[in-house]
Design a protein that fits this description.
The protein is built from 8 helices and 19 strands. The chain is an alpha+beta fold. Helix 7 crosses helix 8.
Length: 349
């Protein structure tokens, strides 16, 4: 399937609503795991990941931390407004989506109040396409912590509560900035990570802050016309060295989640070699893409017609992913952010 023939409708599938996980399991690692190999599918539990990975694999995780990026308040004129941060651009500035009966104009103050009765004011300074530029009177992260709510995906129907604040976060989250969790990492516990290390599996981290654009649907039928939303990532010298050494030695690089994968592939200077540094990426991975770094992927099940489903199809093969998703629906796997996981092996080149 050549690039110009790729259509959005090619990546649709039927999913009964009761397959969408609304709440996390009590035990993170109790999720099911579907192993998607070039010639077969196999059912496991997530704790089996330790046995499925090879002792010399390099596991790359995204240590971004979800911020309380949703703010509910009102305009100076009294109209209700809801903000969803896209990106923090400075200590006192951010870019955000806004939902209101009338879009707030530059110069408008937005007012937010928390349960303690404290208030915070945010100034709308301008607009860039669908996003609004904002200026806070206190550090952005402080305001979000005191006044914000965890931004659960739109397909999760309950309002975010205290449990979500801890469960919609990986156990290794470290760098605040994401408005959505890198959900493949939600299955890992400290115990599972320790068992991986005992087996000799090396783990390293990248940081990619997942933006609100991840929730936006693809709005064109021809995928050649789609422009990916921009996301910021950083890769340390230590991680780059570990990845390059693994590739040079013929070891597998296994990505935990599509965000880690996009960061590594975006940083690839050539096949088998990445550069450290911080930059933005709009990399759109779809069938036909030639992977330069990644050999396998741990991921959740993705929405129909999503760029993440296209990425998975590029790695494992579209027919293999189509069959895996049909199988997962039939076998009552749990889908999306709080759902079950897959281990995708890269299709042979």
């Amino acid at each position: 399937m050549s690039e110009h023939e790729l259509l959005l409708s090619d990546f649709d599938y039927d999913l009964p609503e009761d397959r969408i996980a609304q709440f996390p399991l009590k035990d993170r690692a109790a999720s099911r795991l579907l192993h998607v190999m070039p010639e077969a599918l196999a059912d496991y539990h997530f704790t089996d990941i330790v046995d499925l990975l090879r002792p010399d694999d390099l596991l790359v995780m995204n240590n971004t931390k979800v911020i309380k990026a949703r703010l509910l308040g009102k305009k100076e004129t009294g109209g209700a407004v809801e903000l969803l941060m896209e990106r923090i651009t400075g200590e006192f500035t951010a870019v955000s989506m806004a939902r209101a009966s009338k879009s707030p104009k530059a110069g408008t103050y937005l007012i937010f109040e928390n349960e303690a009765g404290d208030t915070a004011r945010v100034l709308v300074t301008g607009r860039e396409g669908e996003f609004f530029t904002l200026e806070f009177e206190a550090p952005v992260l402080d305001v979000l912590q005191d006044f914000g709510k965890v931004p659960l995906p739109p397909y999760i129907e309950h309002a975010a509560d205290k449990d979500d604040e801890s469960r919609y976060q990986t156990v290794y989250a470290q760098t605040p900035g994401a408005v959505a969790a890198p959900t493949a990492g939600l299955h890992f516990t400290d115990e599972v990570i320790e068992r991986l290390h005992q087996k000799g599996i090396q783990t390293v981290f990248v940081t990619l802050h997942v933006g609100a654009g991840t929730f936006q649907p693809v709005r064109v039928e021809k995928l050649s016309e789609h422009v990916m939303h921009s996301e910021w990532y950083t890769i340390s010298e230590e991680t780059a060295r570990a990845v390059n050494e693994a590739k040079a030695a013929g070891r597998r690089v296994v990505s935990v989640g599509t965000t880690s994968l996009r960061a590594l592939e975006s940083a690839a200077v050539e096949k088998g070699f990445i550069a450290a540094g911080a930059r933005d990426t709009r990399l759109f991975i779809k069938p036909g893409y030639e992977f330069k770094i990644i050999d396998a992927l741990i991921t959740n099940f993705h929405l129909p017609k999503s760029t993440l489903l296209m990425l998975a199809s590029a790695l494992a093969g579209k027919e293999r992913i189509d069959s895996a998703y049909r199988y997962a629906v039939e076998k009552h796997y749990r889908f999306f952010s709080y759902g079950d996981a897959m281990l995708l092996e890269k299709k042979p080149e």
